[in-house]
Amino acid sequence: MTYKHEVIFCIVNAGFSDAVMDAAKEFGARGGTVIHARGTANSEAERLFEITVQPEKEIVMILVPTEIKNDILHALYRAVGLKTPGQGIAFSMPVTAAVGLADHIKWDPKPSKNEKKQEG
């Protein structure tokens, strides 16, 4: 199955969500959603990654067209990756359906012929 959009999740230390969005916007992202969170890690994980885990985190969710996902992930690695003060990790997941992405796209509540075939 081919997906048109993916959601990128980038988890960074608190205060680095603007750096995430700056890096993502350079490659075509339009915006994102920031969720404040608390991270947990054990001392073994800190030794393995050679970092000190800060408990206060921000999770930035960015919905992007699939064709720009890899460029954005690489930009995030460079700007806020584990070896930076942001100590971020990023990953993406396919989006199987979305609404409200653009005003000019009309939504038809009836499933298309392809959707009917996939359901049955």
List keywords for this structure.
120 residues, alpha+beta, Alpha-Beta Plaits
How would you describe what is shown here?
This protein is an alpha+beta fold. The protein has a single domain (5-119), classed as Alpha-Beta Plaits (2-Layer Sandwich), CATH 3.30.70. The chain has helices spanning 17-25, 43-49, 66-80, 113-119; strands at 5-13, 33-38, 56-65, 89-95. A 4-stranded antiparallel beta sheet has the order 2-3-1-4, with helices on one face. Helix 1 crosses helix 3 (66-80).
Q: If helices are DSSP runs of H or I spanning 4 or more residues, what is the number of helices?
A: 4
Number of strands: 4
Percentage of residues in helical conformation? 25-40%
Structural class: alpha+beta
In short:
This protein has helices at residues 17-25, 43-49, 66-80, 113-119, and strands at 5-13, 33-38, 56-65, 89-95.
Which SSEs are present, and which pair or pack?
Blueprint: E1 5-13, H1 17-25, E2 33-38, H2 43-49, E3 56-65, H3 66-80, E4 89-95, H4 113-119
Antiparallel strand pairs: 1-3, 1-4, 2-3
Helix pairs in contact: 1-3
